[in-house]
């Protein structure tokens, strides 16, 4: 697919500096730029690459002033915010790649299901009884949509996604390949023989508008009621959300985060990779948790920044770590003092 630099500048309301007749057919990182590709420069750390890049077009901030000569083959498009504009172009580029409305065969739609306009349904996808699908929804091959599931307008369900019965998705949700929405919560009751009897999980999962779920992530259904991800929540790949968890608006979690049952996470919370969160606790709005930290108790202070396991305020952790690194030296000095005292 080919775009002229004039088209690009028109989309971004940018100023062309260089050859206004050049065209591009692909995208590239600036350090790996090839002829015929479009790149961008937003981070000053990468400025050195613009003086040797092979990219035909580079988006830069209006404030950018080159410190040396830029290759004659490189045309600049100056904009207010290079990073935001490149993201806008990526979105426009992605729109050309999305599937067009059609229902591929073989696929299955139950007689009681209701589907909106402009549905794309990939081969081997399954829509169960009383499913309700909004307009402009894309469901890729091999997806399973269980009975009584509701999916709002503009959602994208990628290949191999499994959405169990009774779950509800708002508008413009994105569920990546292999994710499972609505699997049973981990509910088992021990008996007198030290065996575990399964507790039926009869609730559901509710995803509000603009939620995005990463590949192979699992969100368990509630025992009773709903597991709820509020508007704008973003989960990375391989995240585990347990039964009856509630996650507040615009909270984000990186890969391999695990949240145990019935925990309430506030809005605008950020969790790094491999954070572990205990069950039945509350985390305040705006909390930030560094990677591989453990949260065993309530976090009551809004905007707190935490690190460690168990997690403590990050400045306290840094001081503790400084002491921990010195521990071998301290022990050696202590041993020397003890020997001196004995003598």
From TrEMBL:
<dbReference type="InterPro" id="IPR011004">
    <property type="entry name" value="Trimer_LpxA-like_sf"/>
</dbReference>
<comment type="pathway">
    <text>Bacterial outer membrane biogenesis; LPS lipid A biosynthesis.</text>
</comment>
<feature type="domain" description="UDP-3-O-[3-hydroxymyristoyl] glucosamine N-acyltransferase non-repeat region">
    <location>
        <begin position="22"/>
        <end position="91"/>
    </location>
</feature>
<dbReference type="InterPro" id="IPR001451">
    <property type="entry name" value="Hexapep"/>
</dbReference>
<protein>
    <recommendedName>
        <fullName>UDP-3-O-acylglucosamine N-acyltransferase</fullName>
        <ecNumber>2.3.1.191</ecNumber>
    </recommendedName>
</protein>
<dbReference type="Pfam" id="PF04613">
    <property type="entry name" value="LpxD"/>
</dbReference>
<dbReference type="Pfam" id="PF00132">
    <property type="entry name" value="Hexapep"/>
</dbReference>
<keyword id="KW-0444">Lipid biosynthesis</keyword>
<dbReference type="InterPro" id="IPR007691">
    <property type="entry name" value="LpxD"/>
</dbReference>
<keyword id="KW-0012">Acyltransferase</keyword>
<comment type="subunit">
    <text>Homotrimer.</text>
</comment>
<dbReference type="InterPro" id="IPR020573">
    <property type="entry name" value="UDP_GlcNAc_AcTrfase_non-rep"/>
</dbReference>
<keyword id="KW-0443">Lipid metabolism</keyword>
<feature type="active site" description="Proton acceptor">
    <location>
        <position position="243"/>
    </location>
</feature>
<keyword id="KW-0677">Repeat</keyword>
<keyword id="KW-0441">Lipid A biosynthesis</keyword>
<keyword id="KW-0808">Transferase</keyword>
<comment type="similarity">
    <text>Belongs to the transferase hexapeptide repeat family. LpxD subfamily.</text>
</comment>
<comment type="function">
    <text>Catalyzes the N-acylation of UDP-3-O-acylglucosamine using 3-hydroxyacyl-ACP as the acyl donor. Is involved in the biosynthesis of lipid A, a phosphorylated glycolipid that anchors the lipopolysaccharide to the outer membrane of the cell.</text>
</comment>
């Amino acid at each position: 697919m080919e775009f002229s630099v004039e088209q690009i500048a028109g989309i971004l309301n940018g100023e062309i500096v260089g050859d206004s007749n050049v065209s591009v057919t692909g995208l590239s990182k600036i350090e790996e730029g090839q002829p015929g590709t479009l790149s961008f420069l937003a981070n000053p750390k990468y400025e050195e690459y613009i003086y040797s890049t092979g990219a035909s077009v580079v988006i830069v901030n209006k404030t950018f002033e080159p410190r040396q000569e830029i290759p004659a083959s490189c045309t600049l498009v100056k904009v207010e915010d290079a990073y935001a504009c490149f993201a806008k172009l990526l979105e426009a580029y992605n729109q050309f790649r999305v599937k067009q409305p059609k229902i591929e065969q073989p696929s299955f739609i139950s007689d009681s299901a209701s589907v909106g306009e402009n549905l794309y349904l990939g081969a081997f996808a399954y829509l169960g009884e009383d499913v309700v699908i909004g307009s402009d929804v894309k469901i890729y091959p091999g997806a399973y949509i269980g009975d009584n599931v509701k999916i709002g307008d503009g959602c994208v369900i990628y290949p191999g996604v499994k959405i169990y019965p009774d779950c509800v998705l708002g508008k413009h949700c994105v569920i990546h390949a292999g994710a499972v929405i609505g699997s049973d919560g981990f509910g088992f009751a021990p008996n007198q023989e030290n065996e575990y009897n399964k507790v039926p999980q009869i609730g559901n999962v509710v995803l509000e508008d603009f939620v995005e779920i990463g590949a192979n992530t699992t969100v368990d259904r509630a025992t009773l009621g709903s597991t709820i991800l509020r508007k704008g929540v973003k989960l990375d790949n391989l995240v585990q959300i347990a039964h009856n968890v509630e996650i507040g608006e615009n909270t984000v979690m990186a890969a391999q985060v695990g949240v145990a049952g019935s925990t309430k996470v506030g809005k605008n919370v950020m969790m790094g990779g491999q954070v572990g969160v205990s069950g039945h606790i509350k985390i305040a709005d705006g909390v930030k948790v560094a990677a591989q930290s453990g949260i065993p108790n309530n976090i009551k202070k809004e905007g707190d920044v935490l690190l460690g396991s168990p997690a403590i305020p990050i400045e306290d952790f840094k001081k503790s770590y400084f002491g921990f690194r010195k521990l071998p030296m301290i022990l050696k000095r202590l041993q020397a003092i003890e020997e001196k005292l004995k003598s």
